[in-house]
Structure formats: C-alpha cells, structure tokens
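[step 3/7] inverse_fold.run input=structure_tokens len=370
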C-alpha cells in the first residue's frame, strides 16, 4: 500500500466526523517510498496514532485534526514539491521531514508560507542553525543534533580503539557527511586520528574496492555516516571478504531492516540513538496501543507521535493556531509527551538531548552498558 503513495497527498479519514466539521489541517512528510521507506512507515504510523488519540480527546481548540501524508522519498526536489503542496492545501503544521537533506530545503517553503515544522528525525545542525540565522520562528526539531550524537560516537571510538586504525566513511548526504564529520572531530579532539576518510554514494551496492583498501590499511574499526541500507551491505560484504572490523553508525540504523540485510554478519555492529523511548513510562500506553495493532513502534515512531503532541498542546496554550502564537508557546514552556518532557531552546532545538551506544545482538539492538 505504501508504494502507492507518491507525491499525491493521502488524507486520513476521521471516522464519525460530520460533513463540514471544523478542522485543523496537519501533515506528516517523510520517505513513504524508496530505500528509506521503513522510516517513512515509522513516521506515518506515529502521526496517525497521535492524531487519532488527540481527536478522541476533543481535538485542538475545539476542532479535529485532519492529517495528510506526504512522500518526499528523502529527495530534496521532491521534498520542496511536497512542501509547496502542503502550503497550498492550507496545512498549518508539518510533522517531518526525516532526512536532513529534505528538511533543510523544505523549511524555506514552510517559512515563506507560515507553516510550522517540527522534525522528529533530522539531525544536521544546519536545519535549525540556518533558520535561526535567518530569523525564522517556524523551525523546530524534537530529536537531537549531529554534534551531540557525534560527540558520543567520537569519544567511544577514541576510548575503545586508541592506537588502532579507524576508517571514517560518509555517503555525501547532509545527514551522513554531517554526522561523520562531527564524529571525526570529537574523535580527533580525544586524541585519535583516523587512518582513512572516504566518501561513498548513498546508492552504492558494491563495496569490494573500499573493503580491499580498508584491509590494506589494517582497519580495526569502521564509522559510517549514512543509512541502514548501505551500512548493512557494507557489513555483510566486509565479513564475506574477511574484514572483521566492527561498524558503527548513527540513528539511521534504528530499524530492524538493518539486520534483515546483514543477517548474522551484523552481530556486534554499533549505533548511537537516544535511550530507548519504548521503555519510558510515558510511552507505555502508546506502545501497548501500537502493539495491539500488530505494529512495533521502533525508531522514530514515538518521536513523530510526540511532535504531534507538542503542536496540539502548544496551540491549546496559545489559544490560537496561528504560527506566531504557537511558536511563542513552544519556546515558552515544556511539554509532556510519550518520549518524556520536551522543551526547546532559542534555535528550536530540543533541550538536553541524550545519546547512548547500542550494539546489535541476535537481531535486536541493545543498549551497551559502558
């Protein structure tokens, strides 16, 4: 079904809503199709459940939320096209995008049209840094930043692989290169210099030549700034070619599809991600609701749900659905969500994001006790 959703916007029907009822138009936008569709599924599920739960309690400002789903396929041009469609359709809030390379260009469209955007997953610092420099008040994120995530990864590598040959790789995307560079910087600051720093392409399928170079350089550890598909292929091919160096990547490994690609070769792979949101007491009811539907709310599902909660509560506090009023309310207070208490700084970044290291073991990721 998700393959049928392209640029066209699918509006979620609200059961029992009378014709002509007042409504507030909101949207979730992410990679519904393409190689990162697993994350688009997480976002769609999270937004749909949040809207259902919010509307069941009376909606926002006495109006129901009407949810549209937009597909950007993690493509910058498609993201801008979808953003324009949302603005033209009168959408007031966008829960998205996923890829930083989509969120950053789309944010300009939303700023021009007075649309609030809260990304549940875009971690490149430029997303909020650029918006703040331009004086925009509509850009927020409910996830952390690559500089925070990179510090955790870089310090881990420097501590555990001191004196070893480390390869830093990235896929040239705003997310992948940004995270790799922040990890490299933190690792260098901690006293470890990389043995290799190379770029791949996000659509690469054959890493044989790169693996051969890493073997020649006696690489003992690989850090990849990139997504789960290339990470999975790289790990599997490395093991097949006799390179046993562990691989670490960022939050883009937060999908079980990574293990589907690697199989047992993924054992011991590492990733950074916030402390498991599904284990938080604040998420208990929502997690049970998802599981009752037969869906496991992994990765960014609950972050997307939380972003919708923040919008609804901020509008309620502001007693308005106008951007300036809602934005002011978001900066002024804290919000109770499924992922805990959330607040925002002057740039629109979430306050105090935490990252921890996970290891993949027997098909599941487990928080590493350091």
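[step 3/7] decode complete -> sequence:
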């Amino acid at each position: 079904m998700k393959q049928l959703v392209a640029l066209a916007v699918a509006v979620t029907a609200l059961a029992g809503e009378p014709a002509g009822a007042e409504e507030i138009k909101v949207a979730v936008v992410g990679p519904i199709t393409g190689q990162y569709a697993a994350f688009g599924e997480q976002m769609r599920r999270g937004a749909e459940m949040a809207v259902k739960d919010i509307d069941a309690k009376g909606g926002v400002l006495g109006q129901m939320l009407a949810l549209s789903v937009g597909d950007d396929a993690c493509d910058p041009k498609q993201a801008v096209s979808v953003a324009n469609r949302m603005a033209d359709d009168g959408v007031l809030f966008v829960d998205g995008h996923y890829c930083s390379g989509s969120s950053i260009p789309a944010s300009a469209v939303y700023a021009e049209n007075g649309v609030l955007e809260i990304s549940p997953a875009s971690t490149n610092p430029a997303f909020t840094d650029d918006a703040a420099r331009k004086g925009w008040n509509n850009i927020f994120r409910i996830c952390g930043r690559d500089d925070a995530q990179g510090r955790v990864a870089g310090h881990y590598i420097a501590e555990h692989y001191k004196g070893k040959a480390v390869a830093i790789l990235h896929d040239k995307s705003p997310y992948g290169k940004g995270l790799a560079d922040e990890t490299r910087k933190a690792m260098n600051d901690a006293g470890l210099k990389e043995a290799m720093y190379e770029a791949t392409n996000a659509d690469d399928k054959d890493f044989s030549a790169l693996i051969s170079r890493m073997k020649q350089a006696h690489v003992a550890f690989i850090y990849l700034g990139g997504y789960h598909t290339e990470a999975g292929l790289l790990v599997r091919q490395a093991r097949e070619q006799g390179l046993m160096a562990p691989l670490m990547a960022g939050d883009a490994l937060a999908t079980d599809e990574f293990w589907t690609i690697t199989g047992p070769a993924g054992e011991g792979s590492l990733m950074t991600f916030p402390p498991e949101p599904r284990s938080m007491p604040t998420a208990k009811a929502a997690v049970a609701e998802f599981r009752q539907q037969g869906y496991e709310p992994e990765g960014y599902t609950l972050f997307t749900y939380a972003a919708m909660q923040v919008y609804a509560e901020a509008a309620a506090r502001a007693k308005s659905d106008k951007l300036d009023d809602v934005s002011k309310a978001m900066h002024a207070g804290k919000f109770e969500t499924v992922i805990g208490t959330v607040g925002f700084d002057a740039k629109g970044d979430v306050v105090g994001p935490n990252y921890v290291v996970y290891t993949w073991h027997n098909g599941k990721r487990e928080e590493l006790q350091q």
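[step 4/7] annotate
The domain at 2-144+278-343 is CATH 3.40.50.2300 (Rossmann fold).
The chain has a mean pLDDT of 93.
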